[in-house]
């Protein structure tokens, strides 16, 4: 069975994403998808004391109507702002410098899309997950279409037999169509495993850099990837 994961490039995503990434045999960056304002493409939350704050890369022209691979960041000094925010967030963390170094290395890229991808790959390399997965980009596959049909065609195009997805796909997926084409569909069952944090209630919905900064190379011990078949997942969503 060949497991395919397809997601848009994102800025240092939350640890649940890396549980999904850890299960992928083939990972496809959906880099030609149109940017959606308010998404996690160019922003992520960090925890500062008992608050969460957004770490956002400002986009030239607001990113309107552009595919992610064509996005440009503004010329402002947002890199330094992000580094300062991360230092504040991880002020007491034992491995803060590791997280800061990953941030700085990701931000060496010229193109914004490369920065987003680098933020994921550097974090995954540090944690030690998904090192054997094959990586490709949707813009390189020459597969047109939209919605679930394009997702299915991409999975088939890269030789996948299992498609692993996040919860949002339940709104538009034709699960039977996948099965008719020999592709099983499973949803993530995120573990939400707590790790040590400073101040206030624990939240898992922050950047992977929080987990790295606070637990170092032990970060993968807090990732417990598991999935659920689509029928079971949908049954749990029904009131």
Verbal overview:
The chain has 239 residues and is of the alpha/beta class. The protein has one domain. It has 8 helices and 8 strands, in the order E-H-E-E-E-H-H-H-E-H-E-H-E-H-E-H. It has helices at residues 15-21, 78-89, 96-106, 112-127, 147-157, 175-180, 208-215, 230-237, and strands spanning 3-7, 26-29, 43-48, 51-56, 134-137, 162-165, 184-188, 227-229. The protein has a 6-stranded mixed β-sheet with strand order 5-2-1-6-7-8. It has a two-stranded antiparallel sheet with strand order 3-4. Strand 6 (162-165), helix 6 and strand 7 form a beta-alpha-beta unit. Helix 2 packs antiparallel against helix 3 (96-106), helix 3 (96-106) runs antiparallel to helix 4 and helix 3 (96-106) packs antiparallel against helix 7 (208-215). The protein is globular, with a radius of gyration of 18 Å. The model has no long low-confidence stretch (mean pLDDT 96).
Write the layout of secondary structure elements.
Layout lengths: L2 E5 L7 H7 L4 E4 L13 E6 L2 E6 L21 H12 L6 H11 L5 H16 L6 E4 L9 H11 L4 E4 L9 H6 L3 E5 L19 H8 L11 E3 H8 L2
Parallel strand pairs: 1-2, 1-6, 2-5, 6-7
Antiparallel strand pairs: 3-4, 7-8
Helix-strand topology string: EHEEEHHHEHEHEHEH
Strand order of the largest sheet: 5-2-1-6-7-8
The SS-based structural class is: alpha/beta
Indicate how many domains the architecture comprises.
1
If helices are DSSP runs of H or I spanning 4 or more residues, what is the number of helices? 8
């Amino acid at each position: 069975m060949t497991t395919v994961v397809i997601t848009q490039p994102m800025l240092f995503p939350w640890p649940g994403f890396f549980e999904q990434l850890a299960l992928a045999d083939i990972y496809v960056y959906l880099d030609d998808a149109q940017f959606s304002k308010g998404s996690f493409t160019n922003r992520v939350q960090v925890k500062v004391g008992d608050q969460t704050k957004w770490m956002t890369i400002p986009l030239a022209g607001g990113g309107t109507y552009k595919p992610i691979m064509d996005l440009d960041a503004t010329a402002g000094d947002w890199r330094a702002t992000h580094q300062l925010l991360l230092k504040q967030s991880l002020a007491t963390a034992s491995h803060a410098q590791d997280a800061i170094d990953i941030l700085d290395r990701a931000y060496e890229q010229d193109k914004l899309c490369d920065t987003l991808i680098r933020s994921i790959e550097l974090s995954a390399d540090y944690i030690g997950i998904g090192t054997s997965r094959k990586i490709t980009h949707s813009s390189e596959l020459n597969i047109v279409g939209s919605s679930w049909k394009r997702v299915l065609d991409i999975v088939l195009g890269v030789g996948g037999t299992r498609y692993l997805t996040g919860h949002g796909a339940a709104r538009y997926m034709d699960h039977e169509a996948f099965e008719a084409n020999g592709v099983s569909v499973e949803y993530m069952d995120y573990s939400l495993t707590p790790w040590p944090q400073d101040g206030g209630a624990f939240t898992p919905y922050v950047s992977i850099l929080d987990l790295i900064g606070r637990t170092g190379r032990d970060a993968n011990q807090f990732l417990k990837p598991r999935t659920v078949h689509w029928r079971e997942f949908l049954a749990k969503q029904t009131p």
